[in-house]
């Protein structure tokens, strides 16, 4: 009898967490209360308070699960070297997982102001992201597939952390009406791989550089040209790609002119004439 009660209690607690996660993701943390959770589940507030003291107790419990999985995801595979293709796919999976806890990123400022525990833990996640980026880059450097000074490496990895941390917020800004639709938002989430790997592009060498070119071509095909074609004969590229175009003889004046005329599509994008990148 006692075992059954414990099992029932555990099941109820898990149900509360699952329902709370859905509400937090769909409505946002400021709009969710313990009352709305209890009403939505059809349980008494007393039963909810038996398991959780308040909303932030629920959020802290959800964060524990999020943190455990992030620790696993922010670890390089053992037994074989990291490749650029693996990194590309892994970033896509990481973006999807983060989207499943998207309220943590969309409401980050409000959450950190109300919970010192979350502030400390979230900072640790950010530090883990940078360590993960440094580890990947370190392996590429070790195998001669990247060239960068320590200062450049630190700057690149910091930029990667900023993009991966705020990519969900950027996508919400771009696709607010469809943000809770997994199928409609997935392709946009996967765009993080393109932008993050492009940060490394000017420093890639050998096989990694070839892999980057192949991945970009495959990405362009899979998205049917949408991230690249603007309808006016121009092609938006990341700043990293623009730098590569310049190295290959591209026209700096055309890039500056595009920026001056406001023809930017998004954060870290510039317009470059197609002829300037067909090298």
TrEMBL record:
<feature type="domain" description="HTH tetR-type">
    <location>
        <begin position="10"/>
        <end position="70"/>
    </location>
</feature>
<feature type="DNA-binding region" description="H-T-H motif">
    <location>
        <begin position="33"/>
        <end position="52"/>
    </location>
</feature>
<keyword id="KW-0614">Plasmid</keyword>
<dbReference type="Pfam" id="PF00440">
    <property type="entry name" value="TetR_N"/>
</dbReference>
<dbReference type="InterPro" id="IPR009057">
    <property type="entry name" value="Homeodomain-like_sf"/>
</dbReference>
<dbReference type="InterPro" id="IPR050624">
    <property type="entry name" value="HTH-type_Tx_Regulator"/>
</dbReference>
<dbReference type="InterPro" id="IPR001647">
    <property type="entry name" value="HTH_TetR"/>
</dbReference>
<dbReference type="Pfam" id="PF13972">
    <property type="entry name" value="TetR"/>
</dbReference>
<dbReference type="InterPro" id="IPR025722">
    <property type="entry name" value="TetR"/>
</dbReference>
<protein>
    <submittedName>
        <fullName>TetR/AcrR family transcriptional regulator</fullName>
    </submittedName>
</protein>
<dbReference type="GO" id="GO:0003677">
    <property type="term" value="F:DNA binding"/>
</dbReference>
<keyword id="KW-0238">DNA-binding</keyword>
């Amino acid at each position: 009898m006692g075992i059954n009660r414990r099992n029932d209690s555990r099941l109820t607690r898990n149900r509360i967490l699952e329902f709370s996660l859905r509400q937090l993701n769909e409505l946002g943390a400021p709009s969710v209360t313990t009352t709305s959770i209890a009403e939505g589940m059809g349980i008494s507030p007393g039963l909810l308070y038996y398991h959780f003291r308040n909303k932030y107790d629920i959020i802290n419990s959800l964060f524990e699960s999020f943190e455990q999985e992030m620790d696993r995801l922010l670890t390089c595979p053992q037994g074989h070297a990291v490749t650029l293709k693996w990194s590309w796919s892994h970033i896509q999976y990481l973006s999807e997982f983060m989207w499943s806890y998207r309220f943590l990123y969309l409401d980050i400022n409000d959450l950190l102001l109300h919970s010192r525990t979350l502030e400390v833990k979230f900072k640790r996640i950010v530090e883990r992201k940078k360590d993960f980026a440094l580890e990947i880059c370190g392996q590429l450097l070790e195998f001669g597939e990247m060239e960068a000074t320590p200062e450049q490496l630190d700057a690149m990895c910091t930029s990667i952390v900023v993009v991966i941390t705020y990519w969900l917020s950027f996508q919400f800004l771009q696709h607010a009406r469809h943000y809770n639709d997994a199928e409609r938002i997935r392709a946009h989430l996967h765009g993080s791989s393109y932008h993050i790997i492009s940060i490394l592009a000017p420093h890639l060498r050998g096989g990694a550089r070839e892999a980057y070119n192949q991945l970009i071509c495959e990405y362009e095909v899979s998205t049917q040209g949408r991230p690249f074609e603007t309808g006016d004969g121009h092609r938006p590229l990341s700043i990293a790609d623009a730098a590569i175009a310049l190295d290959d003889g591209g026209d700096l004046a055309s890039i500056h002119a595009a920026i001056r005329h406001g023809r930017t599509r998004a954060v870290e994008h510039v317009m470059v004439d197609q002829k300037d990148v067909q090298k």
